[in-house]
Amino acid sequence: MDLVAACRAFVSVSEHGSFTVGAAAARTAQSVVSRRIAALERRLGGRLLDRSSRTVTLTPFGRDLLPTATQLVRLADRLEHEAQAARHRPLRLAVPAVCPTAALARLIARAHEEGVLLDPFPAGPAERADLVASRQVRAALLAVAPTEATWTVPLGLAVARDPGGGPIYLDTLRPGRADRDRRPRRVWLQPEDDVPHIRDRLTRLRDAVGLRPSQLMSAPTVAAAAADVLTHDDALLCSASQARELHLHWRPLGELGPALARGFSLTITDETDPEALRLHHTCAPSIAQCLETTP
C-alpha cells in the first residue's frame, strides 16, 4: 500500500465531506480513493470515516489520526518540492575573471548537453579559493603552479609598439642614463597573475637583471594596466590571446620563456557531487577554451 497516497485520499475526503468531491480535489478516480481509504483502514486497524449518511464524517478514530495524516501529506509535498528544486539547482563554478564571455557561453551550453545547469561566477584567484573554502560554490578553477595544473597558459609581455621578432628580455627595460628624468618603464601584473608562483619568479628576475622595485607593479584591473601600456610604453604580463583582445603586441619573456605560465586545476567542493564530477570528465575541452589553452 502507498501510505502517502492513502493518507492524501483520507485527508481530501475528510476536508470536503464527500468521496466524490474529495476525489475530484485530489484528481483521482472516486473508486481509487475508496480503495485507498479502505486499505488505510485495514492497515491502521479501525474505521476512519462514517459512510452511513449522505455526508461523510470522521469517526472518533479518524479524528484522532487526521492531524498526523495531514502532516504526513504536507511533509511528502515538501519533500517533492525540495527534490525538484535540488534537481534544478545551478552548479556555481568560480572561474577566472579573464575568461572570455563567448567561451563561457559555449561552456554553459556544453554543460547543459550533459544535464548540468552551470552558473559561472567570475572572480580573482584569492576570491575563488575563499569561495571553495566557504563552500559558496560547488567547484572552482583555482590558480596553481604549472607543475600541479591540469591546464596551463603561457605568459609573455604585451607592449604598444611592435618590438619585432623574437622574445622581449626584461633587462631591456633597465633605465639608462638618458632615462634619468623620466619614469622607467614598468611591467604590470594583472589580478589573475598576482599569485606567488608567478609574482615571486618575476620579482627574482627583476632583481637579477637590475630593475628598480617600482618597475614591477600590480594593477587593480586589466584595463588600468593596458592604459599604462598605451600611455607610458609599459609592458603587461598576459597571455597571447589577451594581448590580441587588447590590440597589443605580444612576445614571450626571454629570460623565462614557456616556463612562465598560469596554471589551473578544477577543485570540487564535494567530491561526491555527481554533476561536478560529470563537468570535470565531459567538459574539459570547453573549460580549456575558457582558459584559452589546451589540456
Automatic annotation (TrEMBL):
Record keyword Transcription present: yes
All residue ranges annotated as the HTH lysR-type domain in the record: 1-59
GO molecular function, one term: DNA-binding transcription factor activity
InterPro entries: LysR_HTH_N, WH-like_DNA-bd_sf, WH_DNA-bd_sf
SUPFAM superfamilies the record matches: Winged helix' DNA-binding domain
Sorted UniProt keywords: DNA-binding, Transcription, Transcription regulation
Coiled coil: none
Taxonomy, superkingdom: Bacteria
KW DNA-binding (keyword) present: yes
Family to which the UniProt record says this protein belongs: Belongs to the LysR transcriptional regulatory family.
Protein's name in the database: LysR family transcriptional regulator
Biological source species: Streptomyces muensis
Lineage of source species: Bacteria, Bacillati, Actinomycetota, Actinomycetes, Kitasatosporales
